[in-house]
Every structure is written in structure tokens, then in C-alpha cells.
Design a protein that fits this description.
GO terms for molecular function: histone methyltransferase activity; protein-arginine N-methyltransferase activity. It contains ten helices and 15 strands. The chain is of the alpha/beta class. Bound molecules: S-adenosylmethionine.
């Protein structure tokens, strides 16, 4: 099979809604791809997972959902795939074609431009799906929906998805100085009162790197998804959490992160995993922080528990609505005065 002309798209951008147009345009520029490629935890995890499972890939038909610059397609081809199909809606696919040609993969990798949901693949079924679909707080961007569509439409019975397991976690954090800086700034901007911005700032989760020492409670897993079986409806979820203070400290809110796991070909082999938590190496996903209105005064062993509800936003399903109901349950002297219950609502966009 020879390289295709990626100038023609199966999807007309003008026909997409404004949110999807904006979403795919954000992946047109090389800058975002540079950031992803240079995220070595991310990219090397994919490379290792694919290379350590060459016996899975050998002579297989592989679909790369959202191929971007083509990096995962080339890993799959290097691992011995019979043929790789890379699909992307963004114009970056034109550069991917040049990369693939320059690296001698033109006969092994076919690129198709358009939404995965609209393109016609040259194969009825594929053996393996590779995709890097994860957004902030795992689900932001809702690209997992597309991977699940690809699974249901194209993956052979017993086919593999790289990666295939993921989980979201939370813990309490002390971040008073940064929280105050972020909010106080708007009280006096060049001598003007900009405080009308404060409610907006409060409702947006903060995506930033959190120092591991700022995490001051135990952790709690909110949810785990198995990509082999999960359904789109399961991606809107309600989960309980419970963490315990590890030291006498203020808890300003919750820090969240996700962990990723790839399949293994041989029983007893350790799967390739990576974490985007504060305890692990830097990734471009950083961590997502949900500040509470209340600052909780914790003693060792005090419990913070509650429920987190997460769903795609009704107006723009690539945005996410998150609401957190929490009860802080202190023990010991002054417990009654320190007990707090609250609710915080966030929009990730
Ligand atoms: C997070 S990037 C990953 C790029 C590349 N796989 C990598 O690992 O560097 C996701 C890519 O998927 C593409 N994408 C997202 N949803 C898509 C869809 N429904 N159809 C086609 N491409 C899609 C985006 O345009 C973007 O280039």
C-alpha cells in the first residue's frame, strides 16, 4: 500500500460545530505536538509498551486513533506491524505524512485525514488500537469517546488497546499561598477593582504542577476504566472518596491525577505504567487542583470524605462539569469547631 494524499479530508471542517472546529484547530499547530513529543514520560511509555510487546504487534493491522505527527504509528511499524493506519482530523497530518515518508515508512503506514468517525479504513477490522487520547483530569477533551467508537467499529474480537487501563485519584493538599495569590491578584489590578473575576477563577480547576510535599493526606482512587469494556455512558460518573490527614496542616482542596497501564503479551511480565501524580515525574498533564471555598484545619488522622460527580458539559461535551460535595470530619479536641461540609462546582474549559 502506498502513501495517501492527506490533503483531502473525509470531514469538512465547516460542517463541525464551533467547539469541534476549535478543538481540532488547536492540534493544527506544531507547538502542541512538540510539547507532547517532549513529554518523555508519556512518549517513552508508549514506546516501551509497544516495543516490549513486539510479539503482539508482529504482522498485525494497527489503527492509530488521532495520530498527530505519526509517532505512535512509527513505533507500531518498528515493532513489526504488517500495516498501520493513522487517522487525524487536524492539518498536522500533512506534517505526519512528511515524517513518515522521510523515515521510510510510506509503505507500512497509511494516513487518513478526517474524523475517525467519518473516514473509511482500508481494512474492515484491525488487531490493535493505539491512541494517546488523555486530557487534563484524564477525561477533558472527551477524546476517549472516539477510541471507544473505534473499538466497537473496528477492533477484532480479542483485539488489544494500547493503553487499556486508566484510573483517577485524589488527595488533599496545602497550597494556601498559591491559592491566595491566584485570587488576591484580581482585587487590585493596576489600582483597579477586578474582583468580579474571582468567582470565575474559583470555578475553574487549576492545571499546574503540585509539589509532592504539598500533598498532605492519603490518596483515594475515584474510578478505574477498562478500555476493553467501558461504555461512553460510564465516562460520566459519581464516585465517593475518603482521605486522611497525614499531618497537622491546612487542606485547601483536592489535587487529582491519573494513572495509565498498557497490556502485556506474556503472563508474569510487568505492564508498562505511568502516573501523572505529584509523586511521579513531570508530564505535560501536570495535576488538576480543585480548591474549596473553605480551608480545612486538619490534625493527623482527620477524615475528608465526599462525592465527586464528573460529566461532559451539556453545551460543549469537550468541557467537563465537576462537582464535589465534601464533609470534613475532625477528631479530638475542637473537632466540632473544625468540622465543615461544603460543595464546590467547577467547569473545565
Ligand atoms: C493528544 S494528540 C496525540 C497525537 C499523537 N498520537 C501523539 O501521541 O503525539 C490527539 C490527536 O488526536 C486527534 N483527534 C482527536 N479526536 C479525533 C477524531 N475524532 N478523529 C480524528 N482525529 C482526532 C487530534 O487532532 C490530535 O492530533
Amino acid at each position: 500500500m502506498s502513501s495517501t494524499d492527506v490533503a483531502a479530508s473525509a470531514t469538512k471542517k465547516e460542517n463541525l460545530n464551533e467547539f469541534d472546529q476549535h478543538y481540532f484547530t488547536s492540534y493544527d499547530h506544531y507547538g502542541i505536538h512538540e510539547e507532547m513529543l517532549q513529554d518523555t514520560v508519556r512518549t517513552m511509555s508508549y514506546k516501551n509498551a509497544i516495543m516490549q510487546n513486539k510479539d503482539f504487534f508482529k504482522d498485525k493491522i494497527v489503527l492509530d486513533v488521532g495520530c498527530g505527527t505519526g509517532i505512535l504509528s512509527m513505533f507500531a511499524a518498528q515493532a513489526g506491524a504488517k500495516h498501520v493506519i493513522g487517522v487525524d482530523m487536524s492539518s498536522i497530518i500533512e506534517m505526519a505524512q512528511k515524517v513518515i515518508d522521510a523515515n521510510g515508512f510510506s509503505d507500512k503506514i497509511t494516513l487518513l485525514r478526517g474524523k475517525l468517525e467519518d473516514v473509511v479504513l482500508p481494512y474492515d477490522k484491525v488487531d490493535i488500537i493505539v491512541s494517546e487520547w488523555m486530557g487534563y483530569f484524564l477525561l477533558y477533551e472527551s477524546m476517549l469517546d472516539t477510541v471507544l467508537y473505534a473499538r466497537d467499529r473496528y477492533l477484532v474480537e480479542g483485539g488489544l488497546i494500547f493503553p487499556d487501563k486508566c484510573s483517577i485519584h485524589v488527595a488533599g493538599l496545602e497550597d494556601s499561598e498559591y491559592k491566595q495569590e491566584k485570587l488576591n491578584y484580581w482585587e487590585n489590578v493596576y489600582g483597579f477593582d477586578y474582583s468580579c473575576f474571582i468567582p470565575l477563577i474559583k470555578q475553574e480547576p487549576l492545571v499546574d504542577t503540585v509539589n509532592a510535599t504539598a500533598v498532605n493526606t492519603t490518596r483515594s482512587q475515584l474510578i478505574e476504566f477498562d478500555l476493553n469494556t467501558v461504555q461512553v455512558k460510564d465516562l460520566a460518573f459519581e464516585s465517593k472518596f475518603e482521605v486522611q490527614a497525614k499531618r497537622q496542616d491546612v487542606i485547601n482542596g483536592l489535587v487529582s491525577w491519573f494513572d495509565i497501564e498498557f497490556p502485556v503479551s506474556k503472563k508474569g511480565t510487568k505492564p508498562v505504567v505511568f502516573s501523572t501524580g505529584a509523586h511521579a515525574g513531570y508530564t505535560h498533564w501536570k495535576q488538576t487542583v480543585f480548591y474549596f471555598d473553605n480551608d480545612l484545619e486538619a490534625e493527623v488522622g482527620d477524615v475528608l470524605k465526599g462525592t465527586l460527580i464528573c460529566a461532559p458539559d451539556k453545551r460543549n461535551n469537550r468541557d467537563m462539569d465537576v462537582s464535589i460535595k465534601y464533609d470534613f470530619v475532625p477528631k479530638g479536641p475542637g473537632a466540632d469547631q473544625r468540622a465543615v461540609s461544603g460543595e464546590a462546582r467547577f467547569l473545565m474549559h
